[in-house]
Amino acid sequence: MKAILFYCCIFSFILFFESCLNSAPSEKMIEQSNDFFYEEIPKGTLMYDFSDDETFESFIEKFSLDSLFQESRIVFPLKKKYLNENLKEEEKFVEAIDWWRVILESTDNYSMRFFEKKKVNLGMVEFRGVENGVSVTYTFELNGGEWFLVEMEDFSI
Fold this sequence. Notes:
Layout: H1 2-21, H2 27-32, E1 36-38, H3 56-65, H4 67-72, E2 74-83, E3 89-94, E4 110-117, E5 122-129, E6 135-143, E7 146-154
Parallel strand pairs: 2-7
Antiparallel strand pairs: 1-4, 2-3, 4-5, 5-6, 6-7
């Protein structure tokens, strides 16, 4: 009887953990982006053909892989919202000299989703941690057919 109870507990834990990994996007992201929703881009599947207007998907891949391209596509000073030590929201501006390259892809520690809202020319990349409190959102704006990072929110705890 104890063995059956033990296996039932293990099975329940596995189901619970699996459901956490496949969690839905945040309510904020759903409200802001009802046009398109993308899972992570498979590596090496997109080409950088920006002959007309670049797509958000191909831009995100190049933004992650090319550090010089990344710096050229950030509006500095970049607005950054974050939680202070008292867990209150604060805002500061990041200058180009203080910028560290970011790689926009999922890992074992956090999942990545990105959204595009074509009606208002916005794209967002959302990172949510897997049991680690990571909560980071990058907001991009389409300007003149090119995407630019215009804001970052880091509400990780």
